[in-house]
Amino acid sequence: MADEIKQINFTIVPAESDDQDRTYSNFCAVSHTPFDFTLTFCEVLPLSDQDVQKAQADHVVKAPVRVRVVVPVQVMPSLIAALQDQFRAFSESYANAGWGKGQVH
């Protein structure tokens, strides 16, 4: 019986503290390797006339990276499910507010 493995169930929760800053992002680029996914969050600011002219010339708009998160492949199914569940709850809660009616881009 020494070979028996005990299973312990637990829940992981964030350890909140008052000194944690939130980071705003209105753009996310996703890439992957065979081992992980990288979520690069950027903040796209309104473009000046000069920025628009440059973007028209080279078809590129550079946005400052606010945070880059690397997620192991094994975590992705749970992350996708959690995002879908939260977005469904959000859509149900704010259905009459005009949110969730399609993509921004």
Layout of secondary structure:
Blueprint: E1 27-32, E2 36-42, H1 49-58, E3 65-72, H2 76-93
Antiparallel strand pairs: 1-2, 2-3
The average pLDDT score comes to: 88
Number of strands: 3
Indicate the structural class.
Answer: alpha+beta
Strand content: 15-25%
Task: Give the helix proportion (percent range).
Answer: 25-40%
Please provide the ordered H/E string of secondary-structure elements: EEHEH
The rough form would be described as extended
Unreliable parts: none
Distance between the termini: 59 Å
Total helical elements: 2
Read across the widest sheet, the strand sequence of neighbours is 1-2-3
The biggest beta sheet is recorded as:
3 strands, antiparallel
Q: What's the gyration radius in Å? A: 20 Å
Brief summary:
The chain is built from two helices and three strands.
Could you please describe the fold and organization of this structure?
The protein has helices spanning 49-58, 76-93, and strands at residues 27-32, 36-42, 65-72. It has a domain at 27-95. A hairpin with a 3-residue loop joins strand 1 (27-32) and strand 2. The longest helix has 18 residues, at 76-93. It is of the alpha+beta class. The chain is extended.
